[in-house]
Amino acid sequence: MTVADATRIAFHALGRNKLRSALTALGIVIGVGSLIALLGIGHGARVQVEKQVASLGENVIQIQPGTITKNAVKLGSDSVSGLTVEDAEAIKREVPDVVAVSPEVKTKSQVVTGNRNWRTSVYGISADYFTIRQWKTVKGEIFSEQDEPGAAKVTVIGSAVAEELFGEDDPVDKIIRIQNVPVTVIGVLKPKGASAEGYNQDDNIFVPYGMAVRNLVGKQTSLRKIYVQATSLEAMVKVERQITQLLLQRHGRGMNGIEDAKPDDFFKVTTQLEIAESATATARTMTLLLGLIASVSLVVGGIGIMNIMLVSVTERTREIGVRIAIGAHRRHILCQFLIEAVTLSALGGIIGIALGTGAAKLLTALAGWPTLISPDAVLVAFMFSAVVGIFFGFYPARKASRLDPIEALRYE
After folding, report:
1. What is the rounded distance in angstroms from the CA atom of residue 133 to the CA atom of residue 142?
2. Where are the alpha helices (DSSP H) in 55-199?
């Protein structure tokens, strides 16, 4: 008997009990469908996080004040205030493979225009900031390097701020007041969405660093961050090391009067690669966890297949005995029952893939959850369902092939 004959007999046997076969395959359908949908959610979340990290720009390195411990009390991040605009200028001047550098200070302020007002974050930056972050304008233009030394009272605003303050009107060349300081809007940035940390990047206002220091942040002279762009991805590790060495040379171990401290106590240098790894680690863990949860339902479906196949062997004991008595080999019996089990799981896998894909798209449409069904996930889910069929179908098939034909013929 050929494999084709065994397959035909297997399909015929399954067709005699259509409802039971369908209910048996339902466990695999639910398992595969759950696996596809949950993996789609996990992959979608990871892609979303990767997009948010990419919104930082290309080859970006961030430098921010460190954290210290005094009297066994950790003072938290940014508790060291030592980064200065001179540090940013030294990095740009002395570190090779650096394309652009921008200092950053930040304050929260109420912004007013006409009869509208909005509270938002105001950043003091250099013109290089827009190059580093790869931010473009949808209206107007960004300020230039010439606007920084003269503390020009100009600003570039995010799309969310533009909507809150101006609605449908064109904000360019309009005056807004930041802490009662009149500032001219010269540009509106393209929407960026949420950052890797989760805040709205479109709800910000950007002004030249000199203007922010002179008019907005008062006596604050230390920087919140320094943004650096390396020439290439390969150069980032080298640039990170050189920046660390330079800042240690400039500030020394006795920065802020703290002796015997590590570099991270004074400043923290983080590359975009490190940020991406940290941000996607949670998404990968979630995807793995969701996949394991869905796999449990697949195993339960496989147990259902084993149970039904054992029942089928019992019901067809006499039939098996007759076939062996007239010359069927034990491997033919094994092949037939194994094909039945694999057929149930494979059909269930195909239907489950379709339902899981549909469920993922429905979640995206109704709940707005980002989902991504990758071909790899589909292939893994289908192969997993087939393996489940083979694994849980082998024991009943082996049991059927080892029946004693004489005992089987006596069976009623």
Report:
1. 13
2. 85-94, 128-133, 159-166
Q: How many CB atoms lie within 10 A of CB 406?
A: 10
What mean pLDDT is predicted for residues 29-58? 79
Distance in angstroms (rounded) separating the CA atoms of residues 163 and 179:
20
Q: Would you say the pTM of this structure is higher than 0.85?
A: no
Q: Is 236 exposed, middle or buried (0-12, 13-18, 19+ CB in 10 A)?
A: buried
**157 close to 191: Cβ distance less than 8 angstroms:** no
For 295-333, what is each residue's pLDDT tens digit? 787 788 888 888 888 887 777 777 777 777 777 777 777
Partners of 187 in the beta sheet? 140, 156
Q: Return the structure tokens found at 129.
A: 């900031």
Tokens of 221: 């002279």
pLDDT at res. 55: 66
CA torsion, ordered 380, 386, 388, 392, to nearest 10 deg: -170
Chain segment 253-262, per-residue pLDDT in tens? 544 444 445 5
Instruction: Write a three-state SS string for 39-85.
Output: HHHHHHHHHHHHHHHHCCCCCEEEEEECCCEECCEECCCCCCCCCCH
φ, ψ of residue 76 to 5 degrees: the values are 90, 175
What is the domain partition of the chain in residue ranges?
3-52+279-410, 81-257
